[in-house]
């Protein structure tokens, strides 16, 4: 197989869309100080439009997780700025960030997404509860219908399968109509069949509901479900591919070295 | 938010039940002690003999004008001289009846003698025979009637001097309440005056109000018109009839509040410990909440509300059995003679309400401190964190711990630099400081201890030992959670039991060394009068007879510039007979100079505490409220064995209610000891020889140490419950670990073996830490009390404390392990968190 896309500059051209969901300007994240300092992100520029489904791929240690945490407002950049919607979140206090996150950012983690004490319905509406906001009933019904768990709304997470739990997590991530949903290896704990179903749901909801999803993964098969795959190596973007196949991604990764 | 809280409570009942139990017990304890304190303020003994009088008038039984409130005087105080005239001038006073009470011995029991006119104050009426008129006629109460009958002749002893009386009547109490606290006999008024000490001057007057005048109004009228009087109406009449009731009130307030303070301190520790365990086990929940947008403030609120719910329920439920505890404590204290056995507790909702508020507030403080960790969790870290707990400790905590540890050691050493009783406060506080220091530095201490202990275990070929040792090293914080409460219990127990034991041992030594007389004569059930002493002294073969009267005196002094007052045991001795009967080990001055009330001798400890030297003046208040500025003529070492204050015998006798001596020390002529003993015994005295002598304050000290023991039992019981609670909780959190171990091939026996190893480690480290906490204060106290660096502590009691708490630790850990392994391992591992 030949390499289809030529090496790209670090900044990627926007997918034509109407408005931006996420923008990173020259984001640098440094851990530690002095000679022991580690540059996790070396100046990331990125704009993601509303309704896009993007996968971030890279070998381990490439800065994937740091990128996700910084872009999602779980962590603040050392320099540069991060915009979610129309808000610069890079200079926010920790408290302000928490409040911002629960209204503008959704999360799907690899595992342990749900509070065992709460029912499915309560888990989904938890961000609104924390924000002290009323639940938009029709939006909630739409979401729980979309994930196909309307019947199980009063069950507890322990009674659900792993795939069902991840679907609940997706609904939870979308309940506040966030500007962006961040997913960290959302299928890492699932078998491939179930994983595919969850990814399909994620992709479909992005398209149908006009939601923006950023997913970090190291699995090419998972990354291939995204509209665009962006490659990260050594703290910087090294290229992207639109509508990539699994094999194309594997080849590209191999080219980037060990992964 | 409320959904989240209730769901959380439901989900985590397992770990919250531990918190519930801790708070339940705290509320129980604080309510129980609160009832004692309230009873000290409002409860009491109901009047029996004075129940017919509208107002009972006596001198001031409370020493006022002092910093510390309500020092009640142990002896009856004198009434103002012209009280009769003054009273009769007050409108509303119908009739005044004087009462004198003289303790008499009838065989081996004591009865109280009163003049017949005083029967008007009482519920007694003649039911058989007639009132006493002649000098040797007596009327006995119905309770005594079984021992005699009208027409019989009985022998009653007054201060060791016997006289014969003819029973001329039986008096029965009318009404439903029968006097039970004392047995009474009535004699003619003239005889009563002759029997009573202090020339028969009455110390209590009963006043009857004219019709239509309320007792309360009359009482306040009397107090306002005649200074130096106190009045008693209704239920408070019992306080003046029974002086021990008033003393018991003060004891209850003092005991209850000091003891409640300790209990509350432990409660805060325990609740904070169980709460942080509970929160620790839900770390991931909090991390998730933080990630999806809960602010630290919301986490704090979440924990606070949850604790508020659990604590309120636990405190409300726990306060109910608190009343039972109060009753049990009342029983214990009355067995110990600290309060009268019929002292009625006052039950109101107040102690429960206060306990609930205090305990819930402490729980909220503990919740706030426990929530700081989950609130600070960085959501990123937490989501990726394995289940190992980081054992980072804040620098502030470490520094506080170290400062307290150094402070505790320094305070333990105060007796080295400061003499007297004041120095003893240092080591007592030191124990508390060291205990808190150990609690704060716990994880670090445990890590150190594990490194020492774990070395050989880690190299062991037994898989159980290896696992236990590696676990302990990697999770010292969890291990500390199990060790610290055990160590606290052991340390506290050792100090609580050790302190009175050191004091008692020193007192016994002092009185053994100090009594050099051949014989001791005691006065049977009442005491020995001056006449009895004279008759002993004039017995052939007696070289010297030293009468010893005992009471309490209050010393007023300046403590670090503030006025202070403290009650001490006082003895009245005959300085002329002292040399051959009692050796107080005089340090300075001479006891020969003890004559009038203006001379006094103090133990060296008390002299140091009050800051006086021989030649200085001492402000002393005797038991009946007589104040005097006396010159210090001598100091002596053996204060614990005999009494911290010594005055001349006739000085003290003049200011006690009965005027009687507790015992007489007799020095016999060479070779006449046995003969003298026989002669005295034949005249009706109780004589013991030197070997049977008891330390002067022994009864009081025994009572005191019994109270200490009761306190200790309750506190140790509380610690035991919470230790078991904490250990079971901490072990219960390890279900998955045990399941995993079994799935990778350990047998259940090996897991249990590992936990046994771990619990042995827990118990041994706790015993060592607890003992180390107790040693510095005990050495300090021992140095202060006896000058010996090695504390005289009962090894049996110490071993019992260490052993019982250790056994409890082992049992709880085993129970926790068993319950954590109840379900099949595959279910545990498979269960999603």
SSE topology sketch:
The complex is a heterodimer of chains A (259) and B (833).
Chain A: E1 20-31, E2 38-49, E3 53-57, H1 64-71, E4 79-84, E5 87-88, H2 94-104, E6 105-108, H3 120-124, H4 126-131, H5 137-146, H6 162-174, E7 180-184, H7 192-209, E8 213-216, H8 220-223, E9 228-233, E10 236-242, H9 246-256
Parallel strand pairs in A: 3-8, 3-9, 6-7, 7-8
Antiparallel strand pairs in A: 1-2, 1-4, 4-5, 9-10
Helix pairs in contact in A: 6-7
Chain B: H1 2-11, H2 13-42, E1 55-59, E2 62-63, E3 71-72, H3 83-88, E4 93-99, E5 102-106, E6 109-115, E7 124-129, E8 137-141, E9 153-158, E10 161-173, E11 184-187, H4 189-195, E12 204-209, H5 215-225, E13 229-232, H6 237-241, H7 243-280, H8 283-291, H9 296-335, H10 350-376, H11 379-384, H12 395-412, H13 414-417, H14 422-458, H15 463-474, H16 476-514, E14 519-522, H17 530-537, E15 542-559, E16 562-573, H18 575-578, E17 586-589, E18 599-603, H19 604-610, E19 617-621, E20 627-636, H20 639-642, E21 645-648, H21 649-653, E22 663-668, H22 673-682, E23 686-689, H23 698-732, H24 735-743, H25 748-786, H26 795-820, H27 825-830
Parallel strand pairs in B: 6-11, 8-10, 16-21, 18-20
Antiparallel strand pairs in B: 1-12, 1-13, 2-3, 4-12, 5-6, 7-10, 8-11, 9-10, 14-22, 14-23, 15-16, 15-19, 15-22, 17-20, 18-21, 19-20
Helix pairs in contact in B: 1-9, 2-7, 2-9, 2-10, 2-23, 7-10, 7-23, 9-10, 12-14, 12-25, 14-15, 14-16, 14-25, 15-25, 16-23, 16-25, 16-26, 23-26, 25-26
């Amino acid at each position: 197989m030949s390499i289809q896309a030529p090496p790209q500059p670090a900044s990627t051209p926007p997918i034509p869309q109407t408005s931006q969901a996420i923008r990173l300007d020259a984001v640098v994240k440094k851990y530690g100080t002095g000679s022991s300092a580690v540059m996790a992100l070396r100046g990331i520029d990125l704009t993601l439009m509303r309704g896009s489904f993007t996968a971030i791929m890279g070998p381990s240690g490439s800065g994937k997780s740091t990128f996700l945490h910084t872009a999602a407002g779980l962590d603040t950049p050392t320099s540069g700025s991060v915009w979610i919607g129309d808000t610069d979140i890079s200079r926010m206090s920790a408290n302000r960030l928490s409040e911002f996150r629960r209204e503008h950012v959704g999360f799907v983690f690899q595992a342990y997404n749900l509070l065992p004490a709460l029912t499915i319905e309560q888990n989904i509406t938890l961000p609104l509860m924390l924000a002290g906001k009323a639940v938009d009933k029709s939006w909630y019904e739409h979401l729980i219908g979309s994930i196909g768990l309307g019947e199980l709304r009063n069950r507890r997470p322990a009674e659900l399968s792993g795939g069902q739990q991840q679907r609940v997590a997706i609904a939870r991530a979308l309940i506040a109509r966030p500007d962006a949903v961040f997913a960290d290896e959302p299928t890492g704990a699932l078998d491939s069949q179930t994983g595919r179903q969850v990814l399909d749901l994620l992709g479909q909801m992005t398209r149908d509901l006009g939601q923006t999803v950023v997913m970090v993964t190291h699995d090419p098969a998972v990354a291939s479900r995204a509209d665009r795959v962006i490659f990260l190596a050594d703290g910087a973007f090294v290229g992207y591919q639109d509508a990539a196949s699994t094999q194309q991604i594997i080849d590209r990764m191999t080219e980037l070295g060990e992964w | 938010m409320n959904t989240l809280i209730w769901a959380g409570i439901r989900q985590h009942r397992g770990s919250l039940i531990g918190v519930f139990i801790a708070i339940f017990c705290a509320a129980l304890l604080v309510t129980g002690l609160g009832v004692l304190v309230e009873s000290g303020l409002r409860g009491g003994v109901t009047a029996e003999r004075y129940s017919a009088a509208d107002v009972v008038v006596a001198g001031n039984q409370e020493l006022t004008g002092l910093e510390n409130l309500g020092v009640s005087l142990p002896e009856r105080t004198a009434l103002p001289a012209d009280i009769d005239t003054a009273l009769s001038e007050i409108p509303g006073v119908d009739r005044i009846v004087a009462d004198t009470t003289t303790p008499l011995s009838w065989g081996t029991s004591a009865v109280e003698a009163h003049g017949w006119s005083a029967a008007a104050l009482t519920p007694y009426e003649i039911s058989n025979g007639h009132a006493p008129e002649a000098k040797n006629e007596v009327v006995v109460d119905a309770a005594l009637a079984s021992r005699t009958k009208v027409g019989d002749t009985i022998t009653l002893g007054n201060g060791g001097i016997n006289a014969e009386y003819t029973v001329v009547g039986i008096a029965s109490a009318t009404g439903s309440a029968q006097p039970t606290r004392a047995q009474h006999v009535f004699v003619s008024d003239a005889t009563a005056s002759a029997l009573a000490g202090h020339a028969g001057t009455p110390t209590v007057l009963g006043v009857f109000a004219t019709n239509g005048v309320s007792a309360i109004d009359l009482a306040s009228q009397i107090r306002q018109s005649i200074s130096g009087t106190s009045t008693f109406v209704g239920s408070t009449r019992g306080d003046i009839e029974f002086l021990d009731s008033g003393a018991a009130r003060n004891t209850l307030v003092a005991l209850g509040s000091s003891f409640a303070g300790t209990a509350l301190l432990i409660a805060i520790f325990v609740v904070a410990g169980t709460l942080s365990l509970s929160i620790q086990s839900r770390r991931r929940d909090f991390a998730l909440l933080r990630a999806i947008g809960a602010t630290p403030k919301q986490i704090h609120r979440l924990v606070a509300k949850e604790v508020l719910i659990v604590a309120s329920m636990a405190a409300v439920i726990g306060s109910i059995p608190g009343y039972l505890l109060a009753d049990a404590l009342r029983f214990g204290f009355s067995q110990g003679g600290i309060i009268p056995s019929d002292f009625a507790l006052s039950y109101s909702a107040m102690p429960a309400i206060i306990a609930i508020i205090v305990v819930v507030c402490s729980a909220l403080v503990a919740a706030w401190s426990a929530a700081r960790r989950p609130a600070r969790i960085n959501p990123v870290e937490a989501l990726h964190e394995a289940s190992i707990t980081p054992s980072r400790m804040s620098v502030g905590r470490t520094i506080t711990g170290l400062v307290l540890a150094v402070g505790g050691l320094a305070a333990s050493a105060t007796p080295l630099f400061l003499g007297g009783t004041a120095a003893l406060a240092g080591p007592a506080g030191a124990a508390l400081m060291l205990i808190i220091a150990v609690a704060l530095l716990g994880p670090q201490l445990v890590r150190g201890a594990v490194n020492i202990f774990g070395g050989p275990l880690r190299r062991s070929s037994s898989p159980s030992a290896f696992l236990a040792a590696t676990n302990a090293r990697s999770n010292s914080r969890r291990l500390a959670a199990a060790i610290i409460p055990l160590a606290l219990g052991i340390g506290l127990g050792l100090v609580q039991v050790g302190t009175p034991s050191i004091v008692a041992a020193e007192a016994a030594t002092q009185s053994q060394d100090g009594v050099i007389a051949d014989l001791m004569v005691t006065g049977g059930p009442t005491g020995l009068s001056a006449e009895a002493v004279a008759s002993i002294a004039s017995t052939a073969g007696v070289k010297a007879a030293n009468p010893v009267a005992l009471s309490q005196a209050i010393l007023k002094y300046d403590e670090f510039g503030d006025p202070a007052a403290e009650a001490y045991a006082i003895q009245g001795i005959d300085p002329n007979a002292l040399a051959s009967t009692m050796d107080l080990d005089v340090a300075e001055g001479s006891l020969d100079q003890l004559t009038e009330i203006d001379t006094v001798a103090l133990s060296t400890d008390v002299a140091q505490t009050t800051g006086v030297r021989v030649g200085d003046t001492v402000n002393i208040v005797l038991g009946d409220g007589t104040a005097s500025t006396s010159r210090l003529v001598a100091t002596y070492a053996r204060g614990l064995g005999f009494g911290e204050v010594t005055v001349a015998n006739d000085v003290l006798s003049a200011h006690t209610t009965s005027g009687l001596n507790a015992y007489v020390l007799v020095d016999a002529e060479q070779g006449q000891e046995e003969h003298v003993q026989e002669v005295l015994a034949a005249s009706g005295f109780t004589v013991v020889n030197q070997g049977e002598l008891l330390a002067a304050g022994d009864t009081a000290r025994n009572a005191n140490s019994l109270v200490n023991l009761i306190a200790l039992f309750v506190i140790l019981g509380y610690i035991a419950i919470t230790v078991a609670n904490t250990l079971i909780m901490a072990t219960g959190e390890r279900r998955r670990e045990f399941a995993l171990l079994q799935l990778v091939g350990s047998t259940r026996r090996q897991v249990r073996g590992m936990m046994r190893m771990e619990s042995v480690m827990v118990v041994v480290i706790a015993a060592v830490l607890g003992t180390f906490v107790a040693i510095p204060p005990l050495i300090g106290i021992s140095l202060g009390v006896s000058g010996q660096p090695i504390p005289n502590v009962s090894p049996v009691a110490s071993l019992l404390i260490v052993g019982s708490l250790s056994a409890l630790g082992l049992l709880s850990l085993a129970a926790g392990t068993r319950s954590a392994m109840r379900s099949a391992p595959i279910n545990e591992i498979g269960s999603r968190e």
